Amino acid sequence: MDRICxxxxxxxxxxxxxxxxxxxxxxxLPDHPEHALAQKYVRGSGSGLLTxxxxxxxxxxxxxxxxxxxxxxxxxxxxxRSLATHPASTTHRQLSxxxxxxxxxxxxxxRLCVGIEHIDDILADLSQALAASxx
Length: 135
What we know:
Layout: H1 2-17, E1 21-25, H2 35-41, E2 49-54, H3 57-67, E3 72-73, E4 83-85, H4 97-103, E5 109-113, H5 119-133
Parallel strand pairs: 3-4
Antiparallel strand pairs: 1-2, 2-5, 4-5
């Protein structure tokens, strides 16, 4: 679990710096509203799960998922493998934009469950998928 949390923090930090990412939601980041609770109850780690907003909404999210090579496209969480999903184009694809909003699902949201692969491989896969999402 330590490796998963270390990798996820590095991914969150990298995503915060990426031009095609509009927001990152991860309790391990100091600017997260629950960061103090993560520090107190889970030794400062924010788990292996994070979400982020991708410029380009539903279309970019679908392209991002299609471009991933290391990450597995799955909706479950809690694995040693890195997993990814884009709810608006997968689990919630049948909903209209209004229905997505009502359900609290943003079209730009991507959810990652980061695994134990080498961080350089994880970041490289995310980088190439982010680039592909904007084409």
